[in-house]
């Protein structure tokens, strides 16, 4: 006899000879196909479950993010309301001159305090070399005593939040005639 581990039965089915000479029957093609289809179905179901879980995660994360943004917006706007009330009181009062100016200055300080608490800072550009990342030149002026490209006047303040410019300053820049 030769050492071929595959034997044929009387019906012609392949049988693999195991250790000790006992033969184990190899599954038929139909059985193997059924097993492969079962594994494929199981993997597909796992894929669908993972996809659904991920979609739910994305939706939950977006809801949480939207909730945080709404809460933060509400808090910020609530901080501005007392400043608005003070401005309305100042305009409704019959105050003249210095009293009205004092009320408006307090209102301005209230706005500045809220912005500072939020990390917003005014850009300090006056007297410095013009930087287009921080300021927008809206005009030029004679360079009387200033070096060229020096900011000589700030028409509108610019503001930053951390390292990001929220609004560039609008400035007048010195230029030689």
Number of helices: 2
Reported for the largest beta sheet, the result is: 3 strands, antiparallel
How far apart the termini lie comes to 112 Å
**Tally of extended strands?**
9
Stretches where pLDDT falls below 50 for ≥5 residues? none
Mean pLDDT across all amino acids? 86
CATH class of the domain at 121-177: Mainly Beta
CATH-level-4 superfamily name of the domain at 121-177: Head domain of nucleotide exchange factor GrpE
- Measured by DSSP, the beta-strand proportion falls in 15-25%
Shape: elongated
From the alpha carbons, calculate the radius of gyration and give it in angstroms: 39 Å
Largest beta sheet: strand ordering: 1-2-3
Task: Please identify, by name, the CATH architecture of the domain at 121-177.
Answer: Roll
Question: In the CATH scheme, what's the topology name of the domain at 121-177?
Answer: Nucleotide Exchange Factor Grpe, Chain A, domain 2
Along the chain, the helix and strand elements come as EEEHHEEEEEE
Counting helices, strands and paired strands, the structural category is alpha+beta
Could you estimate the helical fraction of the residues in percent?
40-55%
Structure in words:
Helix 1 runs antiparallel to helix 2. This protein has 177 residues and is an alpha+beta fold. It is elongated and about 105 Å long. It contains 2 helices and 9 strands. The chain is 48% helix and 23% strand. The chain has a domain of 57 residues: Nucleotide Exchange Factor Grpe, Chain A, domain 2.
């Amino acid at each position: 006899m030769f050492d071929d581990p595959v034997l044929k039965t009387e019906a012609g089915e392949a049988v693999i000879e195991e250790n000790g000479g006992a033969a184990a029957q190899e599954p038929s093609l139909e059985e193997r196909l059924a097993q492969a289809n079962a594994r494929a179905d199981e993997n597909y179901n796992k894929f669908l479950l993972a996809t659904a879980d991920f979609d739910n995660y994305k939706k939950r994360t977006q809801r949480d993010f939207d909730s945080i943004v709404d809460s933060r917006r509400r808090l910020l706007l609530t901080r501005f309301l007392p400043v608005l009330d003070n401005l309305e009181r100042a305009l409704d009062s019959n105050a003249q001159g210095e009293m009205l100016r004092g009320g408006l200055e307090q209102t301005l300080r209230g706005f500045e305090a809220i912005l500072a608490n939020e990390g917003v800072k005014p850009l300090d550009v006056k007297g410095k070399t013009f930087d287009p990342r921080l300021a927008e030149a809206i005009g030029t002026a004679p360079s009387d005593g200033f070096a060229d490209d020096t900011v000589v006047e700030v028409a509108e303040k610019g503001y930053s939040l951390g390292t990001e410019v929220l609004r560039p300053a609008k400035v007048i820049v010195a230029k030689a005639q």
